[in-house]
Amino acid sequence: MNKSDLRSIYLAKRAALSSIEKAEIDAALLHLVKQLPLQKVKVVHLFLPILVKNEIDTWPIIRHFWNNYPEIRVVVPVANFKLREMTSVVLTPTTEIAVNKWGIPEPVKDQPHYQEIPPQEIDLVLVPLLAVDKTGQRVGYGAGFYDRFLETAKPTVVTVGLSQFSILDEPISDVLPTDIAIQQVITPQGIIQLPQL
Questions:
Q1: Does the pLDDT value for residue 99 go beyond 60?
Q2: What CATH architecture does domain 3-193 belong to?
Q3: Which residue from 66, 112, 160, 163 lies 20 to 30 Å from 187 (Cα-Cα)?
Q4: Residue 59 dihedral angles phi and psi, to the nearest 5°
Q5: Which of 55-59, 72-76, 142-146, 177-181 has the lowest mean pLDDT?
Q6: In the predicted model, is pLDDT for residue 197 greater than 60?
Q7: Mean of all residue pLDDT scores within the chain
Q8: pLDDT digits (tens, 9 = 90+) for 108-152
């Protein structure tokens, strides 16, 4: 199935989740993130959730890093929609967050200690997605931000998708040469290593 059709299907599936189902999925994903090996991780990149869109609530994951791995820097994306690029900005418990005009929460630029981290310094990326197939190809919102971002990452970066649903049985049919496959995916059922083709 192609990305456009999958995007429509999984946006509808996500919107249909009840608050109880959503909370159970968030709890399962947090439990599994806690099992990731972090010995070599100094910087972790993950996204801030748009909760009104029923996205995965990453705040408990962020607090897990803050509380249990203070030596790991947590960074989150700030998007430039004109260039279709994003930068990674350090997130701390005192970082001021605002919702941009696209509804995305992100750190406010005009604040003390605002710090961008180059992609080459990031060791682990927790990648948002709507659907993912068995080869690690993913469907997101379609703007390609993460593909361009991961293209600039260091070769040793570990990419782990966070998925509210199981892996697709069939491959995504319209994969592009610029699409970057993820290495692992966490679904509510477990952590799955994906073959890199």
A1: yes
A2: 3-Layer(aba) Sandwich (3.40)
A3: 66
A4: -60, -40
A5: 142-146
A6: no
A7: 95
A8: 998 888 999 999 999 999 999 999 999 999 999 978 899 999 999
Rounded distance, CA 60 to CA 38, Å?
17
Side by side, the strands of the sheet bearing 124-128 are: 116-117, 85-90, 73-80, 43-45, 124-128, 158-162, 184-187, 190-193
Q: Structure tokens of 166? A: 């199981």
Q: Are strands 124-128 and 43-45 parallel, antiparallel or unpaired?
A: parallel
Domain boundaries defined on the chain: 3-193
Convert the chain into a string of H (helix), E (strand) and C (coil). CCHHHHHHHHHHHHHCCCHHHHHHHHHHHHHHHCCCCCCCCCEEECCCCCHHHCCCCCHHHHHHHHHHCCCCEEEEEEEECCCCEEEEEECCCCCCEEECCCCCEEECCCCCCCCEECHHHCCEEEEECCEECCCCCEECCCCCHHHHHHHCCCCCCEEEEECCCCCCCCCCCCCCCCCCCCCEEEECCEEEECCCC
For position 82, what pLDDT does the model report? 86
